[in-house]
Design brief:
The chain is an alpha+beta fold. It has one domain. The protein is built from eight helices and five strands. The strands form two sheets. Strands 2-1-5 form a three-stranded antiparallel β-sheet, with no helix packed on it. It has a two-stranded antiparallel ribbon with strand order 3-4. Helix 2 packs antiparallel against helix 7 and helix 4 packs antiparallel against helix 6. The termini are far apart. About 30% of the residues are buried. It is found in: Membrane. InterPro entries: Marvel, Synaptophysin/porin. It is a multi-pass membrane protein. Belongs to the synaptophysin/synaptobrevin family. Keywords: Glycoprotein, Membrane, Transmembrane, Transmembrane helix.
């Protein structure tokens, strides 16, 4: 229904439309649909995450009290705070402690790219389905598609590895290693124990989707390249005596 609605809207707004859904069965169209789907999953698995880190605290007048710092996309951990475990702030020895690190740049790079790719895939599919005759007749369109595909493949490569490094740092900054950095836990009579942190399996999946996008867009570059006159020229050169 989505594609029929999209075609109806475009046909009402743009002349020269020749809707042909058979293009979706061709490698170029089918891969674009997969890229569209993977962009959604990459966006959702990273951008929709929310977690928390929990400590077990004993201090003056308080025994085994849990405190929690909540963090979420875009992972500005330095804004996530462990509030005092009791109204008296452990007899005045406790000050609110923050997680360390700001990993918003790597996370937002990854999610923003996924969003832009999502919209580009929709645009490309509109062209493939409704204006394939124009696409095939004017070689400027395949060349433009090729240039954009190369750029997107490169950006997926960079953003995925940057995000993978950011995710590793997020795990480090929300795990048991945070306790030595909390000054309030060093106060006399105060003990802090790491209790738990939300599983980040869904964020691991987002990295996997990033890797799949790299592979898929690399294949897309080859498919688009075959539609350009660059491939035809190279074929004629290689076949000439």
């Amino acid at each position: 229904w989505f594609w029929f609605l999209l075609a109806a809207v475009v046909s009402a707004m743009m002349p020269g439309l020749r809707v042909d859904f058979s293009m979706l069965l061709e490698p170029l169209g089918f891969v674009k649909v997969l890229e569209w789907i993977l962009a959604i999953f990459a966006f959702a698995t990273c951008g929709g995450f929310q977690g928390e880190t929990t400590l077990l605290v004993s201090c003056k007048g308080v025994v085994n009290k849990t405190i929690t710092a909540v963090f979420a996309y875009p992972f500005r951990l330095n804004t996530a705070v462990f509030s005092a475990p009791d109204p008296k702030a452990c007899g005045g020895t406790w000050t609110d402690a923050h997680l360390m690190g700001n990993f918003s740049s790597s996370a937002q790079f990854f999610v923003t790219l996924a969003a832009l790719v999502f919209f580009y895939c929709i645009t490309a599919l509109v062209v493939y389905i409704g204006y394939n005759h124009v696409y095939q007749q004017n070689n400027k369109f395949p060349l433009t598609d090729l240039a954009i595909s190369v750029l997107i493949a490169f950006l997926w490569l960079v953003s995925t590895f940057v995000w993978a490094k950011g995710l590793a740092d997020i795990k480090e900054s929300t795990g048991a290693s945070i306790i030595p950095g909390i000054e309030s836990c060093k106060a006399p009579g105060t003990t802090c124990h790491f209790l738990s942190v939300t599983s980040m399996g869904i964020l691991n999946v987002s990295v996997v989707f990033g890797l799949l996008n790299i592979i898929l867009w690399a294949g897309n570059v080859w498919l688009v390249y075959k539609d350009t006159n660059l491939h035809n020229q190279w074929s004629r050169i290689s076949e000439s005596p």
